[in-house]
Amino acid sequence: xxxxxxxxxxxxxxxxxxxxxxxxxxxxxxxxxxxxxxxxxxxxxxxxxxxxxxxxxxxxxxxxxxxxxxxxxxxxxxxxxxxxxxxxxxxxxxxxxxxxxxxxxxxxxxxxxxxxxxxxxxxxxxxxxxxxxxxxxxxxxxxxxxxxxxxxxxxxxxxxxxxxxxxxxxxxxxxxxxx
Length: 179
Fold this sequence. Notes:
The protein has 179 residues and is mainly α. The chain has helices at residues 6-21, 31-53, 56-91, 104-142, 149-178. The protein has one domain (6-178).
């Protein structure tokens, strides 16, 4: 008989999301779009729903585990975007030179680079500041101490910010293509 308790349901949801987020079911060429799609799913649906249904300690444990799995994938996606972007930019006839913002294409690409630098900064802060805070909170939780809900909210806000920056990157890419 299947476990239909709320804890059993939450466990099945977490396992399903972890399987999707593990990266084993996607192809190498789909990693950057997967990152934006994953950010959209997390920021718009998964995190708000789990934050409402899980206890803060369960939510922190889930978020810590998910962050450990998604962090390497996110950095791989950012690396691939950097590599492919540099190749495509150099091959474009509108490319005049570094920081030469003289035509509509180069203006859109410049704004895209600013948004991308923001995405890297947010990811770095999330990886090297917020994730260790979550791990410390998980350790404190095992010792019976309270949770810092502000850290959980910070990570959720950073994921939403990265999603917004990803949308901006797509908008600036579209503007560059039409110019």
